[in-house]
Amino acid sequence: MLDDMTTPQKNSPAFLIQSAIAFGLSFAATGFGIFRLPLDIWQRGFLLMATLFLVSSTFTLSKVVRDQHEATRVHHRIDEARLEKLIAEHDPFKTVN
């Protein structure tokens, strides 16, 4: 019996390309918006640094969430394997002395 915990989920190449394009466009639009704002250079620099920090922390958060999800899947599969082993070894007709 296969369930979603044993089969790896893969994204299609089209989804990967769409995600990369969306990220690139949004990052470029944000940079263009910061460049076009009527601000001093240090204010633009602050917004640029905040944007870069936001992007890097978003990547870090997504990696942590992915790693935690994968660890949960591994623990779940280990628990299932242990349970299956116990069920396979159990003999209901064995007498206890």
Automatic annotation (TrEMBL):
GO BP, one annotated term: DNA damage response
Transmembrane residue ranges: 12-35, 41-61
Keyword Transmembrane helix tagged: yes
Domain named YiaAB two helix: residues: 15-67
Top-level lineage group: Bacteria
GO CC entries: plasma membrane
Keyword terms of this UniProt record: Membrane, Transmembrane, Transmembrane helix
Coiled coil start-end: none
Protein name, UniProt field: YiaAB two helix domain-containing protein
